[in-house]
Amino acid sequence: MKPQTAVEALGSLAHEHRLALFRLLVQAGEAGVSAGSLAEALSVPNSSLSFHLAHLFRAGLIEQRREGRSLIYTANYAVMNDLVGYLMENCCAGADCGTDAACEPAQERKSA
Amino acid sequence: MKPQTAVEALGSLAHEHRLALFRLLVQAGEAGVSAGSLAEALSVPNSSLSFHLAHLFRAGLIEQRREGRSLIYTANYAVMNDLVGYLMENCCAGADCGTDAACEPAQERKSA
DNA sequence: GTGTCATTTCGAGTTTTCTCGAAAGGTCAT
DNA sequence: ATGACCTTTCGAGAAAACTCGAAATGACAC
């Protein structure tokens, strides 16, 4: 993972609303949540919500699929795992600290 | 971990220089690195570096100790682990994804 | 205490981010 | 193709973050 990629991902998460969104999606799993439900859950105007979703999307942290007239958002677990791995890389000057975080949903993942 | 705490920690990491600083300290382990060495490693003016170190410190991600006239900075692994745990909390709607990231240096930790 | 070295704080200018209403873009039923 | 619905894009004002030189603080040696 390149530093700039990590900075963008972290910047996306470094905001009250976006962090709440991302955690909601992480907890929702593959099923995901619609844009409308997210706006309601956070009590945020649609335009603001869309701005934040686009931010997270640009950073690769979330994905989007259409379902009828709704857009369903899901967390991108592969990117999240990469990010965490990047943070902890070569942790502790080689000391034996168990760093093997990973979240792999039972269902299919595109390329992980 | 409270949302605002996580936002501050993520915001601290969401910057090229601060992310580089933090990763350097994570890799340095308990030995840590002096402010001067960090400024040199990043080729950043002292005043800018100090600004970023203070940012990371305020967020609890790094710690500070004096050694002669130098200030030595070290990563706070406990906060890092909490942050990662917070991100992955209740991951995947209960699916069995192995999320047990943690980095615990062999040496003493204050309260973890 | 005087000088020197390591680091932080102050201040002001520049740049970036956040917010949200209004308008536009797609999707579906009739 | 008209209307209803869900969502995004646009735009401009308000707020926050970044940078770095200059001045101040704290620690050590003599």
Element pattern of chain A in H and E: HHEHHEEH
| Number of beta strands of chain A | 3
Oligomeric description of these chains:
homodimer
Percentage of β-strand residues of chain A: 5-15%
Q: Mean of the pLDDT scores of chain A?
A: 88
Keywords (chains A, B): DNA-binding, Transcription, Transcription regulation
Domain HTH arsR-type (chains A, B): 1-95
Pfam families (chains A, B): HTH_20
Protein name (chains A, B): Metalloregulator ArsR/SmtB family transcription factor
Explain the overall architecture.
The structure is a homodimer of 112-residue chains. Chain A is α+β, with helices and mostly antiparallel strands and 112 residues long. The first copy, chain A, is built from 5 helices and 3 strands. Chain A has helices spanning 3-13, 16-28, 35-42, 46-58, 77-87; strands spanning 33-34, 62-67, 70-75. Chain A has a 3-stranded antiparallel sheet. In chain A, strand 2 (62-67) and strand 3 (70-75) form a beta hairpin. The radius of gyration of chain A is 15 Å and the shape is elongated. The two termini of chain A are 14 Å apart. Chains A and B meet through helix 1, helix 2 and helix 5 of A and helix 1, helix 2 and helix 5 of B. The first copy, chain A, binds a DNA duplex (30 and 30 nucleotides) through helix 3 and helix 4. Chains A, B: InterPro entries: ArsR-like_HTH (IPR011991), HTH_ArsR_DNA-bd_dom (IPR001845), Metal_resp_trans_reg (IPR051011), WH-like_DNA-bd_sf (IPR036388), WH_DNA-bd_sf (IPR036390).
